[in-house]
Structure formats: structure tokens, C-alpha cells
Amino acid sequence: MSLLYVAIGGALGASARYLVSGWMGAWFGPDFPWGTFFANVSGSFLIGLVLVLVDGGVLPAGGRPFLAVGILGGYTTFSSFSYESLGLLTDTGLLLTLLNTLGQLILGLVFVYFGVVVGRLIGGA
Amino acid sequence: MYLGLGLLYVGAVLVLNGIWLLGYIQDREIWVMNFFTGGLVVLVALYSAFGLAEPDQASVLAAAQFLLFAFTYIWVGINRLIDVDGRGLGWFCLFVAITAVPTALALFASGGPIWLAFNWSAWAVLWFVYWLLLAMGMGQLTRFSGWLTIVIGIITAWVPGYLLLTGTLSA
Fold first, then answer.
1. Residues in chain B closer than 8 A to A96 (CB atoms)
2. Separation in Å, CA B84 to CA A85, B6, B13, B75, B88
3. Of A15, B15, B82, B102, which residue is most buried, by most CB within 10 angstroms?
4. What is this structure's pTM?
5. Contact residues, chain A, for B122 at CB < 8 Å
């Protein structure tokens, strides 16, 4: 059953990232991988929130395979992040590569922490 | 307590500066909030450095850290009045971004307020973006920097500043 949750969630999450990437590219311009940046940082916030709520019993245990592993696993992407960072390095130079790599890493940590804090305020573990 | 006072208005100035970067506030108006917050944070820094009965290394360090941000806002305000391209401010932002890194690491290592360590981490990224925008002339980052400034302003300054003032959060 968990595998089914993961599969359905993964399909939804990957589709959401595809849509978000398109919107972000149209909104911020084509010069930077805004879609992956936004998906990874917002996904970090959401996984912090979701897992704290699951651990605290606010969300059912099925929330872990469906929401965290499935949806957020499909929504966020490390492979696209790596490929786009390589593209930035070869096409635009070091500075935007640093912004993409360090920015996603640091802001991802900041936002997962923020998600945990919000989850605890709501009633999570 | 004074950290909360400063952070609340840093939140205000960051949110307003973000809206200004997005083009919804005029250059002729944004200097007001930058001067007010810059001045307020200078006062907080001066109290931390000289106002305590027995200033110590920690209080003077806190003052120096406050001034990093106070001077950024005052400089933003001045630049709106004298109409320059902001490259000098951009290079100062790199100085702030680099200084923020060991500050965050030291807080993580010492177990100091963990939320403050994450704040410094976020500020390092934000001030790095300002450097790219102002000193390196990466105008394609303007819209992103506006939104990032608003979001970072809310979660690292406005909210914790208010929670510190109400006693819900401790430093």
C-alpha cells in the first residue's frame, strides 16, 4: 500500500514541479534555474512541516510515504539541480553557480527549519 | 529585548525594500524607512557597546553585528538621495555576507540560539545577492532579490522580532 502512495504522490509532485518550473521561468526570466531553486527551497519548508506533523500525530502515518516520500520527493530534485549548476558553471561563470548551489543549500536548511518550527506551533512533535 | 526592537524594524525595512525592488515604492520615498531603521539600529548598537554598566566582548560584538545592518540601511537611504549606482554599497554587502558566515557557524557550534544561527545564514545569502545585483551589475536578479528580501524579512526579522518583544521567543 505504501508503494502505491509513493507512486501516486511522486506523479503528483513531479507534475507540480513541472508546472512551477514553467511559471517561475516565465515570471523571473530564463537566465537562471528559478524553477528548481523555488521547488527545492519550498519543498524543504514543506517536508519540515509535514514530517513534524506526522511525527506529532496531527497527520496520519500514511502522510509520510504519500506526502514526504511521494509528493515532495517528486517535487524536489537533486539531479536537475546538479545538471543546471553544471550548465551555469560552463555558460555563465562562477558567481551564478555559487548563488544556485550555496543559495539552495543554505536556504533549504533555513526553510526546513522554518517548516519544523511552524509544524511545532501547529501541534507537531 | 533590544534585539527584538531592532529585528522588528529590520523586518519592516526589509519588506519595504523588497517591495521597492519590485517597483511598487518610489525612490523618493523609500529612504524614510531606511533612515529610521538604520538610526534605530545604530542606537541599539550604541547601547549595547557603551550603555551597559559593564560592556564585555559579547556586547561589543553584538554592537558590531548590529552596525553591519544599520549601515546598510543608512547607505540605501543616502543612495536614494544622491542618485548613484550603488556599487560601493554592493561591495559593502559582500563584506556583510562574508562576515555573516562565521557568525552563523559560531552560533551553530556554540549551540547559541539556533533560530539566530539560521537567520545569519539567510542574511549571508541575501547580502550575497545584493552584491551580485549592485556591484556585479546582475540586473536579472532584481525581481528575485525583491521577493527574497520580502520573504527573508518576514521570517528572520519581523516574526522573531515580534516574538522576542512579546516574550514568546528568547535570545
1. 132, 138
2. 33, 27, 20, 11, 9
3. B15
4. 0.93
5. 106-107, 110
Cβ atoms of B65 and B95 closer than 8 Å: no
CB contact under 8 A, B121 and A109: yes
Taking contacts as CB-CB distances below 8 angstroms, the residues of chain B near A28 are 143-144
Q: How many CB pairs under 8 A join A and B?
A: 44
Q: By C-alpha distance, which of A36, A125, A123 is closest to A82?
A: A36
- From the list B125, B129, B140, the residue facing A29 with the nearest CB is B140
Is residue B96 within 8 A of residue B127, CB to CB? The reply is yes
pLDDT category of residue A30 using cuts at 50, 70 and 90: confident
**A32/B144 CB distance under 8 A:** yes
The span from the CA of A76 to the CA of A21, in Å, is: 11
* Interface ipTM: 0.92
Query: Per-residue b/e over B102-140, b at no fewer than 16 CB within 10 Å?
Result: ebbeebeeeeeeebbbbbbbbbbbbbbbbbbbbbeebeb
**Radius of gyration from C-alpha coordinates of chain A:** 16
Please report which residue ranges of B22-138 form alpha helices under DSSP H.
Answer: 27-46, 57-82, 87-110, 114-134
Determine contact, residues A112/A48, Cβ cutoff 8 Å: yes
More confident residue, B96 or B62: B96
Instruction: Say how many C-beta atoms besides its own lie within 10 A of residue A71's C-beta.
Output: 28
B120: closest CA of chain A, how far (Å)? 10
pLDDT surpassing 80 at residue B103? yes
What does pLDDT average to over chain B?
93
